[in-house]
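# step 3/5: fold
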Amino acid sequence: MPDRTRRTERARPAGPATPPTALRPLYERRRWPRDFADRLTAPLPGLRTLVRAARRGALRPSAATVGGTAGLPYAPGPLPHAPPGGIAVTWAGHASWVVRTGGLTVLTDPVWSTRILATPPRLTPVGVPWGDLPPVDAVVISHNHYDHLDLPTLRRLPRDTPLFVPAGLAAWCRRRGFARVTELDWWEAAELPAPGGGTVRFDFVPADHWSKRTLLDTCRSLWGGWVLTDPRGRRVYFAGDTGYGPFLLDIGARFGPVDIALLPIGAYDPPWLLGPVHTDPEAAVRACADVGARRMAPMHWATFLLSSEPPLEPLLRLRSAWRATGRPATELWDLPVGGSRVLGPDE
């Protein structure tokens, strides 16, 4: 991993008076800069930092941490009915969700593999058997890290499945046989037709993170989150993998109120290494408020041990932080892996 000692700053996106960028056509072929390193808001850790982390045992969970996985929530059930005009979300684990909105079934960062490259094996099984999925209408990818872009899982999909990916990632998808790929920059959007009329809109929004799959492609593709808007204007915000930043207020200004925010709460310890790119539970609760979300569903924990915090700590800290806000407990959808919630058309 290259050592970026110079802090790079990106301009803050335009404020709420500026509407989201006009729609882009589906599946268009585009040209991008060689890399997106200018979008970083903090330098990536270099060799010295990684050596320091390794000496402190911070790159992998300790034996005590690994032994503390009992009690992780896992309660798979059948996919619930998604009523017309409603939204149903099911947590398959990590950042993988089955989102049904506007009559479409959308997968987020689908990882159905038991093992992925350079990552410890799953702590909990996938919450939704692949054979139980309805036909998948679209897939959204937040960035290209192996625990979010899993090729063995993508290969289970028909090659004509629409993929929505960050700028710079379409060529990777097309080389693997996917023809219907839409790549977007931050604050760009595209739409898919929805059954019964209207469209579901896919807006790509900023995140504080980075991208890399090989030794030679650091930041060659972008990273971000997605806002899905159904024909009635109801919105699901999928944050992907992100640190906390001012862009969250911009998302709220442009898209709020958000009906459901799917926000990461794990992989934050040690904070001096992971804080810039992963939200801890308290930051996730602030992010929920910033984007104007009426409900929050946590993710990015209880699936892979990617950091040093005890496996159950993210959930305990999240619940404590949520109580401190005074918000109703019913607005926190702290689902087990495999769990589902449905938002009715009139809720």
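# step 4/5: annotate
The radius of gyration is 19 Å.
# step 5/5: archive (pending)
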